[in-house]
């Protein structure tokens, strides 16, 4: 295991689309989604353990969730949980992690760091040796061996090239809920890793079908790989307003001044995504096509799609169920509970902590509004 | 309060049509159906308290529920809860209560009992003074003052006449879920109490409409009034096989031999209803039309009908609910829970103790089968 490989897990989201399953005080990534005894975050960390030293796994989150994370991952040191004092999307989130990793390397410097001819630390070389994978905390990956193989293959490339790599999922259906990445098939660079031609937002159905048929488009997984030199260079060029706020803190990372520094400076960062801020602008962006049973678990529909179904197309998670004249539903109640459905088709039936949602799968985009309505009507009791 | 008035409450049923709300170990009559802090049984007892001395209230039930009854009605003495060792329908149930009341009077004899000319207890007269109302434990009555007025008016009649009286509810709709009683309008006997012409089983819709339109038919409430002499005479004539088994026990009632006697003899009684065994055969059967907001709470549909509805026709019991594009549903979750429904019309949504039922109101006759299916599949865990 390479002690200079790092992993950054983004765990600050709320996931209100999975209400009532997800709550303000217990977002999606902290839930045992499948009733298997591990939360999505725990599964994410477990997935990296064989290839990233545990002390190099960083989790960026809201301060409100720090304690829950330390409880869920007890072998994490508190300083590995980076707390965002405000929600500023993925670019500042990753910017904070980059600064922290740079600080971490600085602390280690002088031990095994190569020196330049004049005896100074060879930072330029050293930063290139630090390879980083950035991943969301709330996705599902079924084939973890293939996932790790893709990460390691990516690191083989990033440690030799200053590039920004993303993992592109081979699409299995014309999904309209994902962004797409078009690979540049004219220029195969390394063992099936492609330069990126375009990033595309969520397409409509017709366009999604064209994308899938073309063979050139991949789902944007939100999983990134790069070496520290490449991503710092990209931030300096494309996100100077983030660098300006956070770079002065590199010296303070890992010290008791880190929190106060971030408290003051992080909220001054612009609210911007890494995709829009860097990936769509930089020239050295690559995509590694991969296929390891991935879902962003972004919607009940996606959860339904990837789950085992009974002969009537019903998905039952965590609980028991009996179906009468009922097809293509997704049902999840607290463990040990029983649902009995009659005459219900294509519905979400989800109960958690005293809230029961019954909603057609096709209407799940309304769930956000319901969450807001419940917030107003019940003063947050059910949020 | 007349100390010779008795009340017999029948509380042995299971009420599986209200599953998952009702369970084997917690039938319908023991449930706080409306989230008001009183079970249907407690409400039934409370309803009689102002007109029947508490020590004259008897509850006939299955032995499995005795403890629960004593907990729910703590001012009841254990010997007021009569335990049926087997399920034998209402005729043996009431036969047991009659025997118990006779025994109770025997114990009291010699105190205030009138004597015949030769100094013996004037049983014939005494039995006529004991007036009894028999009522189910799991019905809903909204206008309790009117209910008690009807009972007292009935007693005025039964204490002077050896008759078997039933309360007939003025029908408010062509309900097909109730039995009907036709009054004999040709012969008004006492202040609006009628002789009964016919008893009719649950009619089909068309017939029910004819019944209601005719003005001669009343719903059979299953609430009976009579004096002890009249009902004993009727049993001797129409149910000799019940009398033969139970009458020898009259001497043992209220003693420590009561239970053993019933254990041995009660199961030998035929399985027969009071309606079929007595009311439909005796010539001296009367009906008192009444109207006090009655429902047998026999079905979710009847519960829906009598409950307050929001402008969209939804009924929410015990819990909170938010409705989107949803009309005419009846929703009951555990107290403090929230249901969010979208795109659901005319459904029952009921959750209790880890079982959630979602079923069209029009399909509720299937619930019994679901209960059986759950019994088989989950070995009684949810029954």
Summarize the topology.
The structure is a homodimer of 383-residue chains.
Chain A: E1 5-10, H1 40-48, E2 57-62, H2 66-72, E3 81-84, H3 90-108, H4 123-129, E4 131-136, E5 140-141, H5 144-158, E6 164-169, E7 180-190, E8 193-200, H6 205-214, E9 217-227, H7 228-238, H8 240-246, H9 258-265, H10 274-279, E10 285-290, E11 294-295, H11 300-306, E12 315-317, E13 320-324, E14 330-332, E15 338-342, E16 347-352, E17 355-360, H12 367-378
Parallel strand pairs in A: 1-2, 1-4, 2-3, 6-10, 12-14, 13-15, 14-16
Antiparallel strand pairs in A: 4-9, 5-11, 6-9, 7-8, 7-9, 8-10, 16-17
Give an overview of the whole structure.
The structure is a homodimer of 383-residue chains. The first copy, chain A, is an alpha/beta fold. Chain A contains 12 helices and 17 strands. Chain A has helices spanning 40-48, 66-72, 90-108, 123-129, 144-158, 205-214, 228-238, 240-246, 258-265, 274-279, 300-306, 367-378, and strands at 5-10, 57-62, 81-84, 131-136, 140-141, 164-169, 180-190, 193-200, 217-227, 285-290, 294-295, 315-317, 320-324, 330-332, 338-342, 347-352, 355-360. In chain A, the strands form 4 sheets. Chain A has a 5-stranded mixed beta barrel with strand order 6-9-7-8-10, surrounded by 4 helices. In chain A, strands 12-14-16-17 form a 4-stranded mixed beta sheet, with helices on one face. The first copy, chain A, has a two-stranded antiparallel sheet with strand order 5-11. In chain A, strand 1 (5-10), helix 1 (40-48) and strand 2 (57-62) form a beta-alpha-beta unit. In chain A, helix 3 packs across helix 7. Chain A is globular. The two termini of chain A are 42 Å apart. The relative contact order of chain A is 0.15. The model of chain A has no long low-confidence stretch (mean pLDDT 91). At the A-B interface, strand 13, strand 15, strand 17 and helix 12 of A face strand 13, strand 15, strand 17 and helix 12 of B.
């Amino acid at each position: 295991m390479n002690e200079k490989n790092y992993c950054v897990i983004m765990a600050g989201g709320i996931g209100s689309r999975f209400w009532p399953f997800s709550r303000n005080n217990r977002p999606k990534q902290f839930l045992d989604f499948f009733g298997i005894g591990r939360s999505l975050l725990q599964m994410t960390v477990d997935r990296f353990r064989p290839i990233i030293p545990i002390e190099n796994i960083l989790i960026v989150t809201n301060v409100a969730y720090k304690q829950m994370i330390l409880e869920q991952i007890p072998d994490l040191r508190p300083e590995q949980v980076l707390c965002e004092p405000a929600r500023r999307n993925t670019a500042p989130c990753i910017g904070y992690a980059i600064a922290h990793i740079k600080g971490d390397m600085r602390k280690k410097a002088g031990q095994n760091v190569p020196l330049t001819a004049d005896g100074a630390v060879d930072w330029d070389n050293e930063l290139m040796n630090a390879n980083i994978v950035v991943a969301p905390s709330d996705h599902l990956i079924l084939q973890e061996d293939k996932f790790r193989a893709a990460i390691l293959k990516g690191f083989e490339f990033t440690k030799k090239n200053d590039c920004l790599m993303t993992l592109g999922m081979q699409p299995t259906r014309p999904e309209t809920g994902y962004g797409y990445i078009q690979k540049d098939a004219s220029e195969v660079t390394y063992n099936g890793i492609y330069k990126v031609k375009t990033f595309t937002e969520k397409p409509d159905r017709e366009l999604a079908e064209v994308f899938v048929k073309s063979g050139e488009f991949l789902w944007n997984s939100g999983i990134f790989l790069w070496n520290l030199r490449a991503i710092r260079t990209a931030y300096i060029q494309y996100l100077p307003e983030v660098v300006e706020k956070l770079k002065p803190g590199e010296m303070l990372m890992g010290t008791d001044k880190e929190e106060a520094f971030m408290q003051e400076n992080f909220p001054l960062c612009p609210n911007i995504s890494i995709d829009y801020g860097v990936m769509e602008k930089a020239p050295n962006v690559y995509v590694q096509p991969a296929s390891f049973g991935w879902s962003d678990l972004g919607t009940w529909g996606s959860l339904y799609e990837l789950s085992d179904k009974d002969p009537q197309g019903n998905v039952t998670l965590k609980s028991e169920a009996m179906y009468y004249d009922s097809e293509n539903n997704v049902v999840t109640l607290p463990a040990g509970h029983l649902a009995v459905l009659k005459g219900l088709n294509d519905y979400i039936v989800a109960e958690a902590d005293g809230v029961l949602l019954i909603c057609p799968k096709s209407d799940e985009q309304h769930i956000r509004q319901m969450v807001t309505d419940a917030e107003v009507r019940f003063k947050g009791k059910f949020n």
